[in-house]
Specification:
about 250 residues; alpha+beta; seven-stranded antiparallel β-sheet; three-stranded antiparallel β-sheet; 13 strands; globular
Amino acid sequence: MVLYKESIAGPSRLELYRKEDDATAPPMVIELNTVTSVVAVEGKMEFMISFADSQVTFACQANADVQDWVSDINRCRGVDSDTTHTSASNGTALYDAIPGDEVFAVRLRKSQSLTFQGACILEIEKIFDRNQFHISLFTEQSPRRLIVKWQIDHIRQYGSNETAFKFQSGSKSSTGVDWFVMDTEPGVAGRIHRAVDYWAKYIVEQIRNNQLSQEGEVQTAPEPVNGVVRGVLGLLVTVALILDPGDTGVT
């Protein structure tokens, strides 16, 4: 699910993708001017969007995500919200790292395609003029040395729990098809997950608008609201992977 604020490319809206691996298919669209209220569901990790004659409920992976969705959607609607943008784990904004500095300390588990394993630095590298975005791993020592990088659009699926981020690289990646698991401090894996989500949707939107431009319909890419591209369980199927603490991620 992706939240867009109003731009010349369209009104404020939510776009719902039922399958992460089919993100180029036309999404279901909820225009925010049809929404009457957005509220958190008490006692559950869910929020409810109400319309004049119906309601729909979305499940999240954490209470903090519920608060962020409610606040960000209401902000795009021009409605004040009493909810806050704080993370239950560290009290800082959940989207502080999106789309600014995205550098994380991780520990890579053993995999089939890499000889390296252990502590390293994960960075989301961005080359805007080429529309290329990478998950890059560097050594901890200075000067940092590149270990491996994966283009985000060459990743097949990804997911996280509180202390681990997991993804499957595709056949176009330098590592070929393989699973990778990176252990993190509590809460960091979710930030990595949301950063990858953000840039994956950004890539799709740029491709879509380039196609429109080539067809003679020049548009400005709608700007995803800062840091609100997040997986919602049951909608983005492949980003809702839940890891067991002992899962190596190697099949």
